[in-house]
Amino acid sequence: MAAKRNFIYSIDGPTPPEKGELGHWGFDIILDGNFARKMREKYPNEEVKARLNGEGRIIIARYGLEKMGNVTPYDFLSGSWLPNSFRVPGNACDLGLECSDREELTNTRLGEIEKRLRPVTYTPHNVDGRDQAFCLLSLFTHWANLTNMVFN
């Protein structure tokens, strides 16, 4: 009998742009609402965040994107382990929380967030190429799988 698996995210896409278009690599990541709530309540120290960002820079280098600039790959909501966005070099290229999810998770007191179970959505912005799209997906899955292993 196979072990029961609890999936914490789903990926819709990625879809390449129409020929000749830039910035249209489309995909969404849907993160389980209960998992997002738990990560909003966690706050690892700055050393842990710095280590994860170092690992993110290695992922970016493996895609050859470090030549385009230097970014902090993981940007967290203030006081939490839930990312606000995942970033790669480019023209403000990121995978970020939907505005309504960000506002709710930022402005709601932690005790009230316990009631929140609906999923949160991350969407890409200014993703001009395949390497950027797949690097963002790699950054997200690295964070999600590591976090799920440690906290769940």
Describe the overall structure.
The chain has 5 helices and 6 strands; from the N terminus they run ββααβββααβα. The protein has a 6-stranded antiparallel sheet with strand order 1-2-6-5-4-3. A hairpin with a 6-residue loop joins strand 3 and strand 4. The longest helix is centred in the C-terminal third of the chain and has 22 residues. The protein is globular, with a radius of gyration of 16 Å. The model has no long low-confidence stretch (mean pLDDT 85).
What would the keywords be for this entry?
152 residues, alpha+beta, six-stranded antiparallel beta sheet, 5 helices, 40% helix
Topology:
Layout: E1 9-15, E2 26-31, H1 33-41, H2 46-62, E3 74-76, E4 83-87, E5 94-97, H3 99-107, H4 110-113, E6 120-125, H5 130-151
Antiparallel strand pairs: 1-2, 2-6, 3-4, 4-5, 5-6
Kindly estimate the percentage of residues that lie in beta strands according to DSSP.
15-25%
In which order are the strands of the major sheet placed?
A: 1-2-6-5-4-3
The overall pLDDT, averaged over residues, is 85
Major sheet, described briefly?
6 strands, antiparallel
The succession of helices and strands, N to C, reads EEHHEEEHHEH
Global geometry: globular
| Number of individual domains | 1
Structural class: alpha+beta
Report the C-alpha radius of gyration, rounded: 16 Å
Q: Total number of β-strand segments?
A: 6
Number of helices: 5
Low-confidence stretches: none
Query: What percent of residues adopt helix (DSSP H or I)?
Result: 40-55%
Note the gap between the termini.
22 Å
